[in-house]
Amino acid sequence: MLEIKDVKLVRDNRVILNNLTASFDRGQVYAVLGNNGVGKSTLSYVLMGLESHKDYTGQLLLNGDPIDALSVFERAVKGITLGWQEPARFTGLTVKEYLTLGGKRKIPKEELAEILSIVGLNEDYLQRFVDDTLSGGERKRIELASIMIINPEVIVLDEPDSGIDIMSMEMIETVLHRLKGKGSIVIIITHREEIAVMADEAYLLCAGRMLASGKPEEIVEFYRKLCDKCQHINEPVSKGGLQK
Amino acid sequence: MIESSYEREFRAIANEYERSGGNASDFLRKDIVSIIVSGNKIIGRNTVEGVHLKARELDNGVEVWLDIDAGIVIENPIHLCTGYLKPEGEQVVLIHNNIGEGSKAKFISHCVFPSGKSFTHSMIADTKVGKNAEMVYEDTHMHSKDGGVTVKATYNTKVEEAGRFQNLFYLTKTRVGKLYVKMNVELEKNASAHIESKVYEREDDYLEIDEELHLNGEGSSGIAKTTVFATDSSKAKIINKAYGNAPYSRGHIECNEIIKGNSVEVGTVPELYVKDEKAELTHEASIGRVNIKQMETLMSKGLNEEEATDLIIKGMLR
Fold first, then answer.
1. pTM of the predicted model as reported, rounded to 2 decimal places
2. By CB atoms within 10 Å of each CB, which of B59, B167, B221, B231 scores lowest?
3. Model-level ipTM above the cut of 0.95
4. What domains are there in chain A, each with its CATH number?
5. Residue environment code for B63-74, b if the CB has 16+ CB neighbours within 10 A, otherwise e
6. Which residue in chain A is spatially nearest to B305 when comparing CA positions?
7. A154 Cβ under 8 Å from any chain B Cβ
């Protein structure tokens, strides 16, 4: 179980995460839905423990143990990983080296080929470089493949569909099912309703705090009614009945 | 072919050659142009039709002439291997390459100095790439772990009309010692060049690189690029220059120095000079630690800081 307790992060006098509280159980897919600028990516960086996002207050607990003091690598060892919204480019590094972490992970070629096929790429990609010779969409698919290979306990997917064509929603759903089937906690950070409804549970994020939680369809409906037409972006609506 | 009296020396050089990534059996093939130098001795050589290979021994090195006839396309790379097995001394290598009009050739050169404690290797390669000809020259160095090797490598190249030239220098797998590299390319009309150096410095290694592109012909183009990974207390000074002397000439120079360690001293100076208003030159330079996003990406997948750095640098210096 992953718990976020009263996490607050302030940048330049602006509150990005505002006493955010949420919890996530194993074998479930969660969507964190919200507009641009509400703190979605910040939340994913805080969970992963990026050096630039360690100055938060509050607490993160993994299976009851605090992980706030842990570095990115130490959190990865504990079983947390991040699927980056904009995956990094690496000069001279092949897809195979990226997926196997330079050979640290011993993975048969057949398994690599199978995982690539799930994200719609063939095994020829193993020899390609993870640099700007790949399109943003191809890099994103490789990022999803890398997450499936790691098979971690907690997966934060920051906008998993960004850069990927709308025809590939089925592929993303397949990836989510596979990750869920392995018993992972999957947290999808997204602003897309089509992605949010793939989850088992959803949170609505606004102005750095969870405004509502529930079934994805309900949260999507709130989102459509309120956030899509919100006149005061990043100022949470305080109408009764919205907060669940 | 290998001179019979140098069998043992060849074996020793071949072992080092293979450690640096080469395939020593290529030196025994009759369809591959090759020359093997140990100290001031030519211990093996072979050539094919259309390629004229001459060499002479100097007191402290060798001089080599390699002429490729016009219109010859060399299928297999030409192999050059220069070795020096003793810990002390000096070796001078003078190379004259002439790539005939319309010819194509790739050179793979390996310089192996595995025992150098107080050794200096000086190399000057003068090359002419003929009209419409293509030449690739890949030079890989393997030095001793003591840091006692000094290398002074100078490449002077003239690329004639519509010729294409690529010069790649690698010293990434061993200590550097002291390294001075000069690459100077003169380009005629519509000629193009890509010159690039990649070096990994350790301990108190010292490096100076000076790359120059002279874009003398209309429509000529070139890229001069340097990538250095400097660690410990190593020092590096990189100068990349481009001269846009002709209309529609285009040049780009780039230097990336990645540093790790508080005692590293590195510097880069990009210099651009234009003599024609239609010339276009650009430069890019960076000095800093390994890109944090790349590091954190790999660390989020289970590599520690050291492993992530190594993998990123391995890719960059490839």
1. 0.83
2. B59
3. no
4. 2-86+152-227 (3.40.50.300)
5. ebebbbeeebeb
6. A73
7. no
